Amino acid sequence: MKYTKTACALLAAVMMAQSGMTALAAETVSGTDADRVGPGFETDMGAGSGTETGTESQPAAYPMAWERVNGVYMDSTGTPIEGALLRGISVSKWQANIDWGRVAADDVSFALIRMGSFGYEGEYTMDEYYDVNMREAKANGIHTTPYVYLQTRTVEEAREAARYAVQMAAPYEISYPLAVDVESQYLMDLSVQELTDIVNAFCEEVAAAGYTPIVYSDYNKFTTEMDTSQIPYDIWLARYGGDHNYPNRTMWQATDQGQIDGISGNVCLEFAFHDYAASAQSGQTALTPGEWAQENGVWYFYQNGNRLTGWIYPDGNWYYLDPNQGGAMVSGTSMVIDGITYQFNGSGVMQ
């Protein structure tokens, strides 16, 4: 894997921010403009990707479109959006400097914030506004979740990208899902099964680290490029001007022409049909921290009463619980997992 210097710069920025300093990471160019699309991409710089054709959405005919009217959110035709609980936005470097205080005052409850583009020719390119957007949104009472523009072409690369995403998410308080954005043309020559397996591999690593995964794409890609019947995770559907219903859909990207106070130009508007923050507080979807247990000299890890297998990230370190050994922790050896050789110290920590 080739880490761009951006990744290191962002990690340094996070550490500086935690010590009271303000810093932003400068983004390097990945060699492609493929990541200049996606949930937080401003339409006047190219194209949004939420429609079935890949073109931008049409202006709303209803003057109160996407607003709350008598306690109910309305769509572009003035029809109530059935089941919509909260309104949010998705943003990236394309929105540049954001006044998060004004955003919060404009009925924005959550924000999906671009972490970066992972996987194009092995590069990990961080969004230069990721850190400041995560911190400032949270400081103004907006629930945050990072999203990764995924360009990995193998299951092994997807797992590695997910583990890196978890590391980059760790310094922040996140009560909404960690999202994977699956729309890069770099992936569209893969078979349906190959792309489905890549998406599941990324989400499995995210879930193992204790986050809730969610998969973003547009209706066309969900129905032709991957098999969502095999993806047991929440769906973040982009479909402009169409039916927003879809199996496991908990978020809907309704338009790329939203107008929000505090943001210059257009922004994608999102609607949540599940209140992740409230569920986490009530324990409905939150995982318990889990605990280690030694049985006959072998260490296992339990969560919600279940013995886990595979990768886990319980304390800021990665461990592997061998599924072929009933979830026994691997330690003091090397092991080939998904075609990659990993080294584990005597305490089971991946080196």
TrEMBL record:
Cell wall-binding repeats: 308-327
Gene3D superfamilies documented for this protein: Cholin Binding, Glycosidases
Xref: InterPro entries: Cell_wall/Cho-bd_repeat, GH, Glyco_hydro_25
GO MF annotation list: lysozyme activity
UniProt KW Signal keyword: yes
UniProt xrefs under SUPFAM superfamilies: (Trans)glycosidases, Cell wall binding repeat
Organism domain of life: Bacteria
Membrane-spanning segments: none
GO biological process: carbohydrate catabolic process; cell wall macromolecule catabolic process; peptidoglycan catabolic process
Region feature Disordered, mapped onto this chain: 38-58
Range of residues in the leader sequence: 1-25
PROSITE patterns named among the record's database cross-references: CW (PS51170), GLYCOSYL_HYDROL_F25_2 (PS51904)
Family: Belongs to the glycosyl hydrolase 25 family.
Protein name (Swiss-Prot/TrEMBL): Glycoside hydrolase
Species for this entry: Candidatus Copromonas faecavium (nom. illeg.)
